[in-house]
Design brief:
Elements lengths: L2 E6 L1 E4 L4 E8 L7 E7 L6 E6 L5 E3 L7 E6 L4 E6 L8 E9 L3 E4 L3 E6 L1
Parallel strand pairs: 2-11
Antiparallel strand pairs: 1-3, 3-8, 4-5, 4-9, 5-6, 7-8, 9-10, 9-11
């Protein structure tokens, strides 16, 4: 059974920073691409950052230069560091895992709120 345990998030002022983490179980982490979606109120869910099993990264244009995704295979954990936060970064952030054999799994989500 695949489980994704998200932590971090919370309330921060514009210009501040936050860190999110997501620990995966039930997957072969070294073969699993990981990443984060987010969904703002009234909006569709969008891809924020992706990190491949080999460490290659991709970001939404709106967060390039401000967010950094990384992974620690020893801890089966992916991190998202959010810098220079803006109110429009507010939303629920969802960790995902793309298993080579079983497809995509998405976590329950964690709230990030950026106040102006």
């Amino acid at each position: 059974q695949v489980q994704l345990m998200e932590s971090g998030g919370g309330l921060v002022q514009a210009g501040g920073s936050l860190g999110l983490s997501c620990t995966a179980s039930g997957v072969i982490f070294s073969l699993t691409a990981m990443g984060w979606y987010r969904q703002a109120p009234g909006n569709e869910r969008e891809l924020v950052a992706h990190i491949g099993s080999g460490g290659s990264t991709d970001y939404a244009d709106s967060v390039k230069g401000r967010f950094t995704i990384s992974r620690d295979s020893a801890k089966n954990t992916v991190y998202l560091h959010l810098n220079s936060l803006k109110p429009e970064d507010t939303g629920v952030y969802y960790c995902y895992a793309k298993d080579v054999f079983r497809g995509e799994f998405v976590g329950q989500g964690i709230q990030v709120t950026v106040s102006s």
